[in-house]
Amino acid sequence: MANDQPPRPKRRGFLKAGGAAVAAGASLGAGLATSQNALGKTQPHALADPQLAVEPFYGTHQGGIVTPQQSHTYVAALDLTTEKREDVIALLRAWTDAAARLTQGGTAAPLPTGDAADNKAAPDSGDVLGLGPCGLTITFGFGPGLFTHEGKDRYGLAARRPAALVDLPRFNGDQLIKEKTGGDLYIQACANDQQVAFHAVRQLSRLAYGTAAMRWGQSGFLSGPRGQTPRNLMGFKDGTNNPSTAKPPLMNQFVWAGASADAPWMEGGTYTVVRRIRITLEHWDNTELDFQEQVFGRHKYSGAPIGKQNEFDAVDLKEEDKDGNPVIPENSHVRLSNQASNNGAQILRRSYSYNDGTNFYIERWPPWRQETEYDAGLIFIAHQSDPRSGFIPINDRLAKFDMMNQFTTHVGSAIFAVPPGAKPGSYIGAGLFET
Amino acid sequence: MANDQPPRPKRRGFLKAGGAAVAAGASLGAGLATSQNALGKTQPHALADPQLAVEPFYGTHQGGIVTPQQSHTYVAALDLTTEKREDVIALLRAWTDAAARLTQGGTAAPLPTGDAADNKAAPDSGDVLGLGPCGLTITFGFGPGLFTHEGKDRYGLAARRPAALVDLPRFNGDQLIKEKTGGDLYIQACANDQQVAFHAVRQLSRLAYGTAAMRWGQSGFLSGPRGQTPRNLMGFKDGTNNPSTAKPPLMNQFVWAGASADAPWMEGGTYTVVRRIRITLEHWDNTELDFQEQVFGRHKYSGAPIGKQNEFDAVDLKEEDKDGNPVIPENSHVRLSNQASNNGAQILRRSYSYNDGTNFYIERWPPWRQETEYDAGLIFIAHQSDPRSGFIPINDRLAKFDMMNQFTTHVGSAIFAVPPGAKPGSYIGAGLFET
């Protein structure tokens, strides 16, 4: 089509400007320091500008696991369509390079300049130009299908599948939708801007054309007063009892995978479970406040365990009232998910709310409403050193007994082995393919 | 169930704290001024904290029309299920009161305190406690079904339907989904936080139980570098050529409805068209840069009209190249939507991107792909004094000729009469029911 078009001015100038903006984005860390030096203490808020935040990409661990949680996410799973091992490696190399650029505020690849740019598709959709890194992290994971697909060892990796990368069992109440479940490859982009998070997955997914295809994608968000535990859509603070990411021993125990005999390449990685949990918000909103609190085992407004005053007061599961009844109900969410109820197991939850508008819904719990309802809830994301001692037993107990199940339905599910971080020059998953 | 529960401590203390937080939210304007006085010019960024922004609710016009665009929206339409005129009035009164509170940072209704609060559902879901007003605006509108529903005049309003509130014609290429189209009542909540926007609609929708039911709801967002025109998901700046909201004569001409003989109650209101426009982002991303620019009629990176240097350079539709061909293509979006192509008509676009994850999609344009694709695009929102001279002729031309149609599909549509703002003590739409 280009031949028949009227001549157009060169856009070298525009592209130069674009390139400069990208370059500035890529070195925002330095820019921030300069700004700080020049202005001293007169602009303390400039440091907190969420658009300017920048997270490292390369390192011992991948970002987005113990990184302080950003305000938005886009998570996605892809299915591999190639039969060739080298295609998978090439994709992981391309993803690593692009992710390293994107997290630092760059485009997925350098934008061509001048006439050379015109007659081909740009290597980046350009929709977040000028937005800054926004604290973007990109986390990659491997689903069971990378190792074995319908009984077939497509890439010579079957023997290297970690025992901890189990197929999740069916849990009580699961109503999983196939199109929102599973996946061979996982991308989790988290950023302080919704479009920046999606932009990352969009560019990476595009790099996979011909090698892997989107299975599902999901946008998520997290709102909260600054410096406080955010409330989820049920109105309760979510994440209070997480193991502290500031304590490396806890992270080594509960989050980071060790070098097991069957999967030494996973050392410094983690196992990630993603669940799409729809919440019947209409039903919840018409539920008595005290029943909501019994369901959670916490007070709604303060976030304190029932019977306590403050959010971070310890959860005392042994406390009884004067009649000898437990103060925190037997089937409350806090009790059932507490480490004391799970042989000391802990998982690092890093969940987001989701909101996909409305659709027609048939509720499985009384009053069996059939009407247009919110398609909203929680993208539950949990990282752990081993799901066999983490998510699986914890969720098995919750699925059976949690009072919250009256209001929640698990409609999507996936599990991934998230390998350690990459070194510059190498790529995510190199240990799996090359050692 | 409450009788069998173990005794619980009173939460008056917690609720007092909650109430104080709400009160602080309601007077953030004052708080901000104090902060400004106390700190002088040392904290210029504190003024720009998007959580602290507060917009007035009562006034000549409703908010959310010429209000500088917030970063998020949740728009919804409800269908009236009552047959009683007084139910509709009661709902509008309740909505007005709740919206006045919510926009100022309050809860939908005061939270009860002490034991009285426990045994009933709280009047607010509580999920944005402490978040501040976040610049929330709430805009209400009336769809054709309020006036006539399946030929029936349910509320004695048929004779008061404005001629300008037409049923939208079918446009070329429309592929409207019934469940995302139409509606008797419209709520548009815009805020600097995704959860705050949704929270508003959620409380208002709950107030409608028994009177109206959700027909569709949709979350939207807008990302952009500070102080610059945001880019939509196609990567182009969107909204450059909007009529300036800073120019009241332009707003009076193109946005605000006058006191027509058939609908004097609409004076100071506007007519709002909402279209859900799905964009085949995968297809667009693989399209040559110069073709993308021909489609828009603008340069992608600078936002300038083709042949110009800067974003805000005037669009010169008469300019020709040396061969006599138009520099801005005949079927480009900018030319077809320009007021010079539309008898001088202008509309105030205030659109948001949407991103509902992925679903299986059959594309109607080559290459007729059938695969899992992004369910993402634009929630097009346009305000105008009369859609018969605004959206309808403009979109009729676009639907027939716009090159962009290769990449976009209109899948949802609605039109509403948005009445003027309310006076304190009155309610939105009072002029329709009471004069």
TrEMBL record, chains A, B:
SUPFAM superfamilies: Dimeric alpha+beta barrel
Domain Dyp-type peroxidase C-terminal: start-end pairs: 229-422
Name recorded for this polypeptide: Deferrochelatase
InterPro entries the record matches: Dimeric_a/b-barrel, Dyp_perox_C, Dyp_perox_N, Dyp_peroxidase, EfeB/EfeN, TAT_signal
Enzymatic class: oxidoreductase
Family according to the record: Belongs to the DyP-type peroxidase family. EfeB subfamily.
Keywords: Heme, Iron, Lyase, Metal-binding, Oxidoreductase, Peroxidase, Signal
Organism of derivation: Paraburkholderia dipogonis
Cofactor(s) listed in the protein's UniProt record: heme b
Subcellular compartments: Cell envelope
